[in-house]
Amino acid sequence: MCRITIANPLKRAFSLIELIVVIAISGLIIAIAIPSYTTAQRQARDTRRVQDIKRIQAAMEQFYAIHSYYPSSSAGNLTLAFEGNSLPVDPKSGSYTFSNTSTSEYCICAALEAATGNANPVATTTCTWNAAGTSYCVQHQQ
């Protein structure tokens, strides 16, 4: 005698246990990946801040070489060093700390998120250098 079996259509679906296991594994992978992604974003923003600060410093020194003074710290005057182009902006907060005590010196700082900087945040008109600081700063070279 020949037996004919008919497949049960309900047997083709995943069981509840299988779905829970897959969701748990996915949640674990996401929980591990998100902090790494956030750290990478912070480091990328810090790298850009350091590059921006060095770019501002180069523009200020070039301006000084031509005019024999640094532009003042007001935003309109700083663009003089960039020949009318816009100043670089912080990728998160939008601005860098610029301290200009005279036309012969300046200090520019950026607060870092993930890296150790070379200075403390500017509280006065001068840079406060600290190898374990939370800011990256540059000052006049002339």
Give average pLDDT, whole number: 82
Strand-pairing-aware structural class? alpha+beta
Give the terminus-to-terminus CA distance.
103 Å
Strand content: 15-25%
Radius of gyration: 28 Å
Number of domains: 1
Number of H- or I-type helical stretches:
2
Fraction of residues in helix = 40-55%
Tell me the number of strands. Answer: 5
Task: Give the overall silhouette.
Answer: elongated
Helices and strands, in order, run as: HHEEEEE
Please give a handful of descriptors for the protein shown.
three-stranded antiparallel sheet; alpha+beta; 142 residues; 2 helices
Give the arrangement of secondary structure elements.
Elements: H1 16-67, H2 75-81, E1 97-102, E2 105-111, E3 117-120, E4 128-133, E5 135-139
Antiparallel strand pairs: 1-2, 2-5, 3-4
Quick recap of the structure?
The protein has helices spanning 16-67, 75-81, and strands at residues 97-102, 105-111, 117-120, 128-133, 135-139. Strand 3 (117-120) and strand 4 form a beta hairpin.
Describe the structure.
It is elongated and about 105 Å long. The relative contact order is 0.13. Strand 1 (97-102) and strand 2 form a beta hairpin. The strands form two sheets. Strands 1-2-5 form a three-stranded antiparallel β-sheet, covered by helices on one side. 42% of the residues lie in helices and 20% in strands. It has one domain (19-139). With 142 residues, it is of the alpha+beta class. It has helices at residues 16-67, 75-81; strands spanning 97-102, 105-111, 117-120, 128-133, 135-139. It contains two helices and five strands, in the order ααβββββ.
